[in-house]
Amino acid sequence: MGNIKNKTPVFLSINETNLLLKNTKNERHRIGISLMSYAGLRISELTSLKVSDINLSKSFIKIVGKGNKERIIPLTPYLQTQLEKYLQRNSTRLVYDGLLVGGCRSAWHRVVKKNSKKILGKGDVHCHTLRHSYATALYEKGVAIEKIAQLLGHNSIETTMIYSHISLESKRKAVNILDQPKNRYKSKLFKFFNRSVEHQVSLNNVEGLVGRDDLVSEINNQISKKRSFVLSGAQGCGKSALLRQIPDAIFLPEYLRKKSLVYILLLSSPGYLADSEESESLKAELSKMKVDDLIDAVKSVGKIIVIDDISDCSKSDKKAIKEISKGPNVVVSASSKIADRKLFDTYVEVKPLKRHYTRHILSDMIHMVDQKQKEYVINDILHSAGDNLKEAEYIARQLQFGKSTEEIVTSERSSNQVSIAPLLLLVLLFFFSYVVKSYTSSMIAFSYAALIVFRFVFYRLIMGKVMRRTA
């Protein structure tokens, strides 16, 4: 009998894993590789993982492995952060009971092999290599074999949402070893100062609309008449929620020119299946076409096409959107700019939701054991967000990550904030020049005043118009 050589399984070091994740450009691919590398998921577990299986407030994911055996895997701070960002950026596309990344086994094997060969120069890396690297890194850091076996799902366990055979807290201490020390200590400090909020707020998936019956009827009426129109209203008034309720529509979170046109044609093609070889081949062919040819092709698909926000689209993009509506398609878009009402022949105005309706939505969304504290949290959110429903929902979702309302800053709120520090400094300079009666200090004060005027008048108004024209 010939000699049998024991082949050493291929695995990646922690540095190689981090390098692979850092240079993987596609966000969906990166989150899939992260789950296999930092949670030890099998490829079948990754493709079947649902959004509802992720509990960010308690920092763990529930996995259904071989033989329908459930196990709980705590999230490392790195993986928690990546999942938070992914869910926030894709909140309009992902469904609570839907798949997180989906895909098929062969497609994910190609993704891992392609990226590892391109980034690491290794052509023998596959999905199970990432799972093996996860277990190897834990073992090298001194984690007991019994705990590793539990994390990998090799033993039969009976799981609840909080505890399993090995306690969730014990597992969390084990997997956090994979993170850099400074990140681990930072995470502990963050949780210490926010422990009053953490583990108290959880969110329910709220479906349907509240207080929008008249608008829903108007939207359905326009669609039944095959009319394209714009939902016009201020930012955060609930336009996106109305658009997501339109049935049998191709939903685009934003218009991305060629990419969006290709996406519409892909979804309109018969027998389309994401990540299949036929669909990837069709996508490659469509990507080679010119934008004008793609627009002509989209004109004839005869679909309801919903584009969430066109406020920041360029004139050429808005012209293309109008061209798409000239065929049998019905195009419905949303904008916070009054000028965009002229894009189509008609528009539907969306006014901010009344405060008691917003309170009702938040009450259904937020789950807390202490009802008095829940009312306090809702009042705090409404005080911070005002009539902006989008901002109120965003603050509510951030609360389950252990943050307080004071720490949560949205882009809209930060853009509306005006610092009074320059004005106070200006008053102080003029007061000082008046007291000492110095020509030099007076000139400094006038120069500073001119600088403030230049910044707020010239930069914000004139440069803002230039940036909007070139966008």
Task: Summarize it.
This protein has 471 residues and is an alpha/beta fold.
Can you describe what's shown?
The chain has 471 residues and is of the alpha/beta class. The protein has four domains: 14-193, hpI Integrase, Chain A; 213-349, 3-Layer(aba) Sandwich (Rossmann fold); 366-416, no CATH class; 421-470. The protein has helices at residues 14-22, 27-38, 43-48, 77-89, 105-119, 127-140, 145-152, 168-175, 181-193, 213-224, 239-244, 258-268, 277-287, 291-299, 315-324, 355-365, 371-385, 389-399, 411-416, 421-436, 439-470, and strands at 54-55, 60-64, 70-74, 202-203, 229-232, 249-252, 304-307, 330-335, 346-349, 366-367. Strands 6-7-8-5-9 form a five-stranded parallel β-sheet, sandwiched between helices. Strands 1-2-3 form a three-stranded antiparallel β-sheet. Helix 12 crosses helix 13. It is globular, with a radius of gyration of 27 Å.
CATH fold type of the largest domain: hpI Integrase, Chain A
Distance between the termini: 72 Å
Q: Can you count the beta strands?
A: 10
User: Tell me, what's the shape?
Assistant: globular
Q: Hey, roughly how much beta strand do the residues contain?
A: 5-15%
Which CATH first-tier class of the largest domain would you pick?
Mainly Alpha
Q: How many structural domains in the coordinates?
A: 4
Can you tell me the residue ranges where pLDDT is under 50 for at least 5 consecutive residues?
1-8, 156-171, 189-199, 463-471
Q: What's the CATH architecture name of the largest domain?
A: Orthogonal Bundle
What structural class do the secondary elements suggest? alpha/beta
Our count of helices gives 21
Query: Taking Cα atoms only, what radius of gyration do you get, to the nearest Å?
Result: 27 Å
- Helix content bin: 40-55%
Under CATH, the homologous superfamily of the largest domain reads: Intergrase catalytic core
> Mean of the pLDDT scores?
76
- Major β-sheet profile: 5 strands, parallel
Give me the side-by-side strand order of the main sheet: 6-7-8-5-9
